[in-house]
Amino acid sequence: MVFNSWLTERIHQIKDQNLYRELTVMTSGPAPKVTINSQNQLVFSSNNYLGLAADERIIAASRSAAKVMGIGSSGSRLTTGSNIWHQRLEEKIASFKQTEAALLFSSGYLANIGVLSSLAEKGDVILSDELNHASIIDGCRLSKAKTVIYKHVHLKDLETKLKETQKFNKRFVVTDGVFSMDGNIAPLDQIISLAKAYNAFVIVDDAHGTGVLGANGRGICEYFGVQPDVLIGTLSKALGAEGGFVAGSYILKNFLLNHARSFIFQTALPPCICAASVKAFSIIEEDKRRRESLVAKSTFIRTRLRELGYEVKGTVTPIIPIIIGGTKEALNFSKRLRQYGIFAPAIRPPTVQEGESRIRLTVTAEHSYEDINQLIEAFKLLSTNDEVTK
Ligand SMILES: *Cc1c(COP(=O)(O)O)cnc(C)c1O
User: Which of 221, 181, 184 has its CA nearest to residue 204?
Assistant: First the structure.
C-alpha cells in the first residue's frame, strides 16, 4: 500500500460525508470584526466571551512578565520550569474559585486527561454524561477504570447507573458544567446530591462557566452554591489566555502533581501567559458589566432567532446553537452566512450527533447591538430561503 494513496482515500471518504475540515486563517487579532482572505467578517463563534484576549491591560501585564522572565519556561514544573508566575496564578485561581488550592496544566484538555487517568484506577467506574467534551472522553479512554455513559443531564438515568455500579471500588461522576456544543447548564446541585447519596465523587469541567456564570463570574459552583470534589477549568475561553487548571483541596493538588502524567511530562506554561491570566482574573473580579452585557446580548439573540422560527438551544450562556440537521445543510448554511459577512462555522459529527449538525453561535461582551442586528438580519434572509433551510 502506498502511504499517500491511503491518506488520499481517507480524505475522499470524509469529503463524501461532508465531514472534511480545513483551517481558516485570520489576518487580524481576536475581535468581533476580523479579516479572512481580505474579507471583513463579523465573528460569532469565538470563545473570547469577555473580550479579554486582546485587552491592553493584559497585554501590558504579559509584556512586563516576559521582559523579566523570558518566553519559554524551559522545563516541566517538577524540574526547572516552576516560577513565581505559576505560583501567583495558582493562588489567584484558588482564591477566585474559593478552593484551598489549584494546579495549572498546559491546557484544559491536558487537565481533563490528567485528572481522569490518574484518579480513576482499575476497579473503579466513571459515569460520564453522553455529551461531555472530547477531552473528558479521552480522559476516560486513558483511564484503566470502566466508563459508563448516562443520558444527557438525565438524573433518573444517572441514578439507575449509580445503583448498578455499587460493586465498583471508587465511583466518579464527570460532567461539563456548561455543555460546549449545546450551551445548556448541567444541574450540578442535583448531580452532587445524587452522587453523595451513592457515595460517588464528582468531577466538573467548568471550561465555559469560568468568568461567565455566577454573581461574580466564579463559574458553575457559584451559580449553584456547591463545590464538587474536583473542579477543572480553562484559561483559554473567557480569560482570553491559555492553559488549564484543577481547583480543589491541597491533598488533591499534591496527588495530581505526583500522578497526573499530563502534568508531570509537560513543559510548564510560559510565565508571561500566566501573568496575563492573573490580570484577566483581576479584571473579571472588578468589572461586572462585561458579564451582564453578555447575558443581555445572548438573551436578545436567542429571543430574536426563536421568533424567526429557528430551533435554538441553551439558556443563559453565550453559546447559542442553531440546529440545522444534516451535515451538508449545516455547511451550506455556514457558507451563506459568510456571504452576509457572518463567520460561524458548522459543527458536525463527531463533535455532535448525526442529524444534529448546527451553527454554534457565540456572542462576546465586545459585540455591539449593530453587530448583533447584522447577525439577525442574515438569519432573517436565510430563513426565507427554502433552499438553505430545507
Ligand atoms: C475547550 C474545552 C476544553 C479544552 O480546553 P483547552 O484549554 O482549550 O484545552 C475542555 N473542556 C471543555 C468543556 C471545553 O469546552
Answer: 221
Q: What is the pLDDT of residue 337?
A: 96
Query: Domain 56-286 belongs to what topology?
Result: Aspartate Aminotransferase; domain 2 (3.40.640)
**Hey, whose CA ends up nearest to atom 14 of ligand 1?**
207
Nearest alpha carbon, ligand 1 atom 5: 108
In single-letter form, the type of residue at position 377 comes to: E
- Ligand 1 centroid–CA 135 distance in Å is 7
318 in ligand 1 pocket by Cβ < 6 Å? no
Q: Give me the architecture of the 18-47+288-383 domain, per CATH.
A: Alpha-Beta Complex (3.90)
For residue 385, the model assigns a pLDDT of: 64
What is the C-alpha to C-alpha distance for residues 376 and 275, in angstroms, rounded to an integer? 38
> Is the C-beta atom of 277 inside 6 A of ligand 1?
no
* Alpha carbon distance 259, 118 (integer Å): 6
Pocket test for ligand 1, best of 237, 239, 266 (most atoms within 8 A of CB): 237
pTM of the model: 0.96
